[in-house]
Each structure stands twice: as C-alpha cells, then as structure tokens.
Design a protein that fits this description.
The complex is a heterodimer.
Chain A: H1 7-17, H2 23-40, H3 75-80, E1 85-86, E2 89-90
Antiparallel strand pairs in A: 1-2
Chain B: H1 9-17, H2 23-41, E1 44-46, H3 49-64, E2 76-80, H4 107-114, E3 118-123, H5 157-164, E4 170-175, H6 181-187, E5 190-193, E6 213-218, H7 221-231, E7 261-265, H8 275-290, E8 294-298, H9 303-321, H10 340-351, H11 354-366, H12 372-396, E9 399-403, H13 419-424, H14 430-434, E10 439-446, E11 452-459, H15 464-478
Parallel strand pairs in B: 2-3, 2-4, 7-8, 7-9
Antiparallel strand pairs in B: 1-3, 4-6, 5-6, 5-10, 9-11, 10-11
Helix pairs in contact in B: 2-3, 9-11, 9-12
Classes of the chains: A mainly alpha, B alpha/beta.
C-alpha cells in the first residue's frame, strides 16, 4: 500500500506523537517517513494469511503478586525531580 | 600504567582476594586510565569518584571478612547511562533527562554491587539507545579507541569503548537490536545479549520492551560469562524475567566443540557484506572445523523482511514507552508555553533529538488506526515466521555463526545522513532480539583497514551453553592456546 506522507499526515502523526516540528523538520520528516514506509512496505509481499501475530515469547498473560510495599519511601526524591512543584503536587498549566 | 593493566577481571579479583592489590588500587588504576584517555574517547558521561572510592573501602572490608566471594569481587565496572543508580543521573544521553536523578537502582546494577564490583561511571550511548554509532548522544560522540576517526558502534558504544580502551575491564550494556554485539565487534571486545528474560529490566530505561536485554561486555569470554552469571536471575520487579533452570554458565567455558553442529546462514553472506568480514567468518569456520565442530551453510530465509519488521516493532514500542517524557514528572520542561498540550509538545520537541523524534513519529504512525493491521500486525506475523525459521534451524544446528555487522566501524560523521542505510547495517543482529535468542560477539581478528571484526554465535532460547562453548573455543584457538 502506498501511503502518501503529506502535510496533513505529518500534522496527524504530530498530534499522536505529541511533537511539534518546525518547517525544516517537517520537510525532513516527510522525506524520511516516505522513504522508510516505501522500504517497510516490502512486508506486504510476504504471505502471512494463516500466521498468528506473535507479540511475546512467554505464554503467561498476567503475572500477579501480593501488593506488598518493598521499596523505601522515596516520595521526596521523586517529587524533587519535577520541573515545577507545589508542596506535594506537580504543577501543570491550567487545564480547565 | 600499572601491573593491573594486562590482567583479566577474574585475575584482578583473585589478586585482591590474595591481598596482592587492594580494591582501592584497582579503582584508582581505572580512574587514571580514564584521566589519560577519556578526553579523546568520551566513553564516560558521569562519574562519582569519591563515592566509588568509599565503596571500594567497604567492599575491601567485606572481601577481607569473606562476606563477598564472587569471582569478580573488587573489580571496577562501567554502566551504560540508561540504567538507574539511586541518587545519580540517568540521562540516556538525552537533553530531555538532564537534571534527572534516579530514585532507585536497577536490579542488574544492584547485583553487580552486591557481588563487590565498583561502579566507576556511566557510559556514553546513542540517545535513548536509538542508533548504531554513539553519535546521537547529547554529550557528543564517543570515539573508537582502536582508531579515533571511527565510531565505536552503538548504542552501547561508551561501554564497549571503555573496555577496549582499558579504562575498565567490565561494563554493562543493553541490546535492543544489536546494541551490545555490534559495538563489541567494532571495538574488538566480547559482548553477550542473553536470552530475553534472563536479566531483569527493572531500572533499565525502556526503548523496545519486548526486545531490550541488559548484557555483559568484557575483554574475554571468561570475564564476560562470569559477569553474565552475576546479573542473571528472575526478579519480581520485572514480570517478563524468567526463572531459568540453570545459571551456572561458567561450566560451559570449555573448548569441547567436537560434534557441535554450527550453521552459517548463506543468505547472510551475500549482498552488502565486506569481503574482509566474509573472510573472517570463513576463517572462524575453518578454526572450529579443525576443533571438531561440524560447520555448514544453510538458508535461514526471510532475510529481506527482518529489518522492516524490526523497525516497525521497535519504533512502535518506543513511541509508547517514550510517552512518559512529558515535562511534568521529571526532566526537561520548555520555558515558554501557554497551555498543557503546547507544554507537552514543545517540551518533547525541544528535549528529544532528531533520531528519537524520527522513531517516535514512525512508531506512532504504524500504531495509528487505519495502519495498525497493515504495519504493526503484519510485522508481528513476520516475526512469527522468523521465529519458525529459527526453530527449524535449531532442529538441525546447535548454534548459528554469522557476521555481527557487514563492515568494520565506519568513520565518524558518515552514518547519520542516511538513516535507512544505517538501519540496514543492523541486518545480522536484530533477528536475535525479535526471536528472544541469545547471541555473543567475539573478536575474529583485524580487517585490512586494521579495524577489529567480530563474529556472532546465536543460540536457541535458553541455550547459552552452545554459544559460550563455540566462543570460548574460538578465543582459545585465536590466542594459540
């Protein structure tokens, strides 16, 4: 399948990827993605009709354990990594 | 340089236990090598010398009291900068993580420390492990100690360069598509990518979670296998880690390869492979045949589909793993924003480098509705076919011999202009990650450009035994022992 990577597509992917590209980066991204997709389209010639997709080696679906705290309390260290905090809260721009 | 210089890590540990040298001397020796060489090599991006020297003292006491007896006790080690160490930076060599301090230590690093090794520093890497040259690091490129005009390979280029330069004898790297094996080959050292699940990923900053494994890097097979033993084990903090029946990998350090059946994928030996590298693979074939192994060529198949499937899966996983970098919880936040989404987008766009953005974009695209089946599911089906091809191969062979990379280390500045070409150079390594297999890279001598060539042995899942035997036999034969 030939996918056209136009400005609209780059905008769409930018929304999904949470990235905003400048003009130069957009042009480069259009070129790189077109080239990469042309190349990975090679997979379409491979017959996979009766093949199950393989996502993982392990047969296990969920690995459960008791919810027991074993870590030390690194609450303060964790918060001190935040770019902006207010006491025990992370500060973000107003959302509503 | 001191008397420690020429010795293996295992030997240094022996001398420490015999009180011939102290842990502190070993650590200081490592720092003096770093001081002498690293300005040019740029293998290290962070060091805490005082802390390391304090640790050396406390480890010395424990060794003296007989509390630590590991075969690598007291030996200095380097750790790739995508592994967490409590209260120390872990940047993945990205501007987006500058200023971040880990709140806990990766399980593999904890195990290294519990065995009495001293971490002397964190090593340079491609940003978020996305690259094959260690040129995309925000700390500047790392250089190959064999020839500083060349790249060390990547993404664990700093770890491999540090070992090759003699700055440390041991290092931890991580391997998502060849990131331990390829730089080991380029730098002329030994590196192992274990079977998926052998080493805990807890505290390893994720790139492609179904592909990532931490592994050891050293100057010889013995040191590398001893370090693998230390870091292996099931860990409740990584639900994909696996309890293996056997962690005694050292017992496979034997030259007995008589009757070992080794296959060389003929389809790996054709297009794009340098003649020098081809010749080395054939030399290895002859050496192991002389030692009694049965080496023959076969067709693995699917070779042209491996890279497309790998990049779809790796980028898809990366795009979702790297969603966490949002300028809220840690790392870089843009100074200039008005609302939340603008803050997210600008922080990420300014914080990530171009290769990382390229892969996040591709990953987001192949996972998006409308393209998910055509790309992502198709890649997972291709992976299933590839796993089947390896299953068939391992029904005939005990292990597989192949090149690690199609060429020797490229010159600095030559690889990044053409990303697709760079991706294609990963052809021999990525299938090992897609299929959860173990692989070891061992030096096979120098090419005509005087750069090291590595070969790779690939085993079936949980069959490190066969690749260790083959690698050890090759090493002994090459050293004329």
């Amino acid at each position: 399948m030939a996918v056209v990577i136009d400005d609209e597509m780059i905008d769409y992917v930018g929304i999904l990827a949470k990235l905003s590209l400048n003009e130069e980066e957009r042009e480069r991204a259009k070129h790189d993605m077109t080239e990469m997709l042309d190349y990975i389209d090679k997979l379409s010639e491979l017959d996979t009709d009766n093949v199950e997709p393989m996502s993982h080696l392990s047969e296990s679906v969920n690995v459960f354990r008791e919810d027991v705290i074993t870590n030390p309390d690194y609450h303060e260290e964790t918060l001190s990594n935040a770019p902006e905090r207010n006491e025990d809260y992370l500060v973000v721009p107003k959302t509503i | 340089m001191s008397k420690i210089n020429e010795l293996s890590a295992t030997k240094v540990s022996e001398l420490i236990k015999n009180h011939e040298i102290t842990v502190e001397e070993a650590v200081l020796d490592s720092y003096s090598a770093i001081d002498a060489k690293d300005k040019e090599i740029n293998a290290f991006v962070h060091m805490e010398k005082e802390k390391a020297l304090e640790e050396a003292k406390s480890i010395q006491e424990k060794i003296d009291k007989g509390e630590i007896t590991s075969p690598l006790a007291g030996v200095p080690i380097a750790v790739k900068d995508n592994m967490c160490i409590v209260n120390e930076p872990a940047t993945c060599c990205s501007n987006i993580l500058k200023g971040y301090k880990s709140t806990y230590t990766a399980t593999a690093v904890d195990k290294v420390k519990d065995s009495g090794m001293v971490v002397v520093g964190k090593t340079n890497m491609d940003e978020f492990a996305m690259g094959s040259t260690t040129e995309t690091s925000c700390f500047g490129p790392c250089k190959n100690p064999v020839n500083t005009d060349r790249v060390p390979g990547g993404s664990s280029g700093g770890s491999c360069a540090a070992v090759a330069a003699g700055e440390v004898k041991l290092a931890l790297g991580s391997d998502t598509g060849g990131s331990i094996r390829q730089p080991s080959g380029y730098c002329g050292v030994v590196g192992i990518k274990p079977t998926y699940g052998t080493v805990s990923r807890s505290g390893l900053i994720a790139y492609g979670s179904s592909l990532d494994q931490i592994g050891p890097i050293a100057n010889d097979v013995t040191d590398c296998v001893k370090l693998l033993e230390v870091i292996s084990g099931k860990d409740n903090k990584d639900s994909t880690s696996i309890l293996r029946q056997d962690y005694d990998f050292s017992k496979y350090l034997t030259e007995d390869v008589k009757g070992l059946k080794i296959g060389i994928p003929a389809d790996y030996l054709s297009e794009g492979l340098d003649k020098d590298v081809y010749d080395k693979v054939m030399e290895v074939k002859d050496i192991l045949t002389d030692k009694g192994a049965v080496v023959e060529e076969f067709n693995l198949g699917l070779s042209e589909y491996i890279i497309p499937a790998y990049y779809i899966i790796a980028c898809a996983e990366a795009s979702s793993n790297l969603e966490r970098f949002d300028g809220v919880k840690y790392g870089y936040r843009t100074p200039d924003y008005e609302e939340l989404h603008e803050m997210y987008k600008k922080s990420r766009s300014e914080g990530f480098g171009s290769e990382v953005k390229r892969r996040i974009m591709l990953g987001s695209f192949v996972l998006s509705s409308g393209y998910y089946d055509a790309y992502y599911i198709k890649a997972l089906k291709t992976k299933a076919l590839l796993k089947k091809a390896y299953d068939d191969a391992f029904s005939k062979y005990d292990c597989i011999l192949s090149p690690v990379a199609p060429t020797t280390a490229p010159e600095i500045g030559k690889s990044l202009q053409d990303p697709l070409k760079m991706y294609l150079s990963d052809i021999y390594t990525v299938s090992v990650n897609l299929c959860y297999l173990p692989g070891i890279c061992v030096p096979a001598g120098l090419a005509s450009d005087n750069m090291p060539v590595g070969v790779q042995f690939i085993g079936n899942t949980f069959r490190e035994d066969n690749i260790i035997k083959a690698a050890y036999a090759l090493e002994k034969a090459r050293k004329g022992e």
